[in-house]
Amino acid sequence: MAYASFRSIGAYVPKKILSNKDLATMVDTSDDWITKRTGIKERHIAAKEEFTSDMGVKAAELALERSGLAKEDIDMLVCATISPDYFCMPSTATVISAKLGLKNVTAFDISAACTGFIYSLSIAKAFIESGMKKNVLIIGAEKLSAITDYSDRGTCILFGDGAGAAVISATDNKAEAIIDVHTGADGEYGDLLMTPNGGSGSAHDALEQESSSCFMQMKGNETFKVAVRTLTKDVVEILEENGIQSDAIKHFIPHQANYRIIKAVGDALKMKEEQVVLTVAKYGNTSGASIPMAINDIYESGRLQKGELMLLDAFGGGLTWGSALIPFSPK
Ligand code: COA
Predict the structure, then answer these.
(1) What's the pTM?
(2) How many CB atoms lie within 10 A of CB 75?
(3) Rounded CA gap, 190 and 200, in Å?
């Protein structure tokens, strides 16, 4: 049987920084309020001419280079995004495949908001274990600044842009294999975080839509509570099902939405400070890109070594959630 291994990681962060102080000149807020309530100090914003696919390409190039594979070896590309280059089509995955010069790939986007990278991981694992694909490039890429309402202080302080990518490869060595991936959803909570307009369910006729129609709207307080509950429950289940204690986890990498959410979940799971990976202060919430960007951070700082066990945990609009137990398995 083929197993799926997490072979390499890459990320890209756009140059421009939007600090809390900058935001305080745009809406009625302050550095102090944002820092205390979210732990975020700054976020990066893509240039006008920089698309989600451009960021995805840069992250993917790095992951590919670090995998030691040739472009021709990649047989599938999955892009997790809620801020695609184009509404409906072509998918951002196909745009990225063209920009990378990938031929003979299956390429598609998935929409699972902040859980998108973990959903992509589960898809890559399933395709590889079934023998249908051998090397899958999974990308989380977001230009959330394009769907953020910068007059709404309840949301605009949270989100940033960026991309992360990983290569998932077939292996016959079980020690290298992704141990488990959980994914779940509950559509009853769909209204907590949504872009209410712009689709076929929109209250407006397409011709009448205003430019703000695709902006995100969020019920922050309710989202916060469901996030803590869901993230904690999901981790307890995946650890129990696989007979793994939390102290065996070298790197706990939660979706980077809010420091207070991460702290509450980490405390509930009795994670030590050194186990918990935190990038929310410098990147804010980059949705589907947040987890691979965080993995790349510990990789580039030399903290992530071959064989070390990572626990990923995410939660996002939909609602969706997911977790994954993964040894880092570079060749
Ligand atoms: N600056 C200053 N004040 C603000 C503010 C801002 N940026 N945003 C909201 N406020 C105000 C509110 O208007 C409210 O004022 P009031 O008491 O006079 O009515 C007060 O702060 C408290 O608002 P509330 O929404 O209860 O704050 P909170 O502690 O829940 O923090 C969030 C708001 C958005 C930071 C928090 O709810 C959160 O992070 N939620 C989860 C969001 C998330 O993770 N989403 C993505 C999921 S993947």
Answers:
(1) 0.96
(2) 18
(3) 16
- Tell how far the Cα of 256 is from the centroid of ligand 1, in angstroms: 16
CB 258 near ligand 1, within 6 Å: yes
Which residue ranges form the domains of the chain, and what is each CATH number? 1-331 (3.40.47.10)
CA of 236 to the centre of ligand 1 (A): 28
Q: What are phi and psi of 234, to 5 degrees?
A: -65, -40
Q: Which of 35, 83, 148, 224 to mutate to test the pocket of ligand 1 (most atoms within 8 A of CB)?
A: 224
How many angstroms is it from 154 CA to the middle of ligand 1? 5
Q: Which residue has the tokens 């299956």?
A: 106
Q: Environment class of residue 29 by beta-carbon count within 10 Å: exposed (0-12), middle (13-18) or buried (19+)?
A: middle
CA-based nearest residue to 185, from 230, 148, 120, 154:
230
- pLDDT at residue 207, rounded to an integer: 54
Measure the CA dihedral 200/54/154/216, to 10°: 0
For ligand 1, is residue 327 a contact (CB within 6 Å)?
no
| pLDDT, block means (10 residues), the chain with 331 residues | 96 98 98 98 98 98 98 97 95 98 96 98 98 98 97 97 98 98 96 87 60 80 93 95 96 97 94 97 98 98 98 96 98 90
Give the integer Cα–Cα distance in Å for 63 and 127.
19
114, 135, 156, 296: the catalytic one is 114
| Paired tokens of 225 | 């509570």
Contact 60, 10 (CB under 8 A): yes
DSSP state of 159: B
